[in-house]
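Here is the promised in-class demo. Please do not try to memorize the tokens; focus on the logic of going from shape to residues.
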């Protein structure tokens, strides 16, 4: 991680989102095709710092993060980009390309979790649902994003919404093949179900563990 990236992350943590975005705009490090991936990572770091109370700044931050994702997707090699489906593009890409343009699952998951922290639950669920489920890594990220949403809903007193989001997460978790990716989200799901008084759901999630 570069000094610029560390500084803008600290700016965002302090609540200076305008300053963090200005640094992204002004730094040569994030310009052009070679800087697209770094820019995407920098904006993801800013998104991670969004909290309830940051609603005024959040719209711009999240919009720029989504634009950075689109920019990276547009820079895939033509022979790859011409193929049908993002998942197929990832699978067909060369190892070098994969290193340069990593999957966007983590970015979307961070956006969904930020939207949940802001209380924007409808948007958060829509973002989480847009995450691909091509492999266990993606499913893990999607399930955890939905659990984070469910937790935030429970914190806000929306027990029905929390239960529904936890149930969506459980559907994803059940499709995960590798046990190492299942244990943690299942544990989180059990806690959400228990917290909202859905003990049958907690028992089902425990049985899946």
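The designed amino acids, position by position:
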């Amino acid at each position: 991680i570069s000094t610029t990236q560390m500084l803008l992350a600290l700016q965002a943590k302090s609540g200076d989102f305008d300053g963090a975005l200005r640094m992204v705009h002004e730094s040569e490090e994030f310009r052009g095709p070679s800087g697209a991936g770094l820019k995407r990572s920098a904006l993801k770091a800013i998104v991670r710092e969004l909290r309830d109370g940051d609603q005024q700044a959040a719209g711009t931050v999240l919009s720029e993060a989504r634009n950075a994702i689109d920019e990276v997707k547009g820079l895939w090699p033509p022979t790859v980009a011409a193929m049908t489906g993002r998942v197929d593009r990832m699978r067909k890409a060369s190892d070098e390309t994969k290193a340069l343009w990593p999957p966007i699952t983590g970015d979307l998951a961070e956006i969904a979790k930020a939207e949940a922290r802001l209380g924007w639950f409808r948007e958060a669920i829509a973002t989480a649902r847009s995450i691909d489920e091509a492999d266990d890594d993606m499913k893990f990220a999607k399930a955890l994003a939905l659990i984070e949403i469910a937790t935030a809903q429970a914190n806000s007193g929306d027990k029905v919404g929390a239960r529904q989001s936890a149930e969506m997460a459980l559907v994803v978790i059940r499709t995960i093949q590798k046990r190492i990716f299942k244990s943690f989200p299942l544990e989180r799901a059990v806690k959400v179900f228990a917290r909202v008084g859905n003990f049958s759901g907690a028992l089902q999630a425990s049985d899946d563990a």
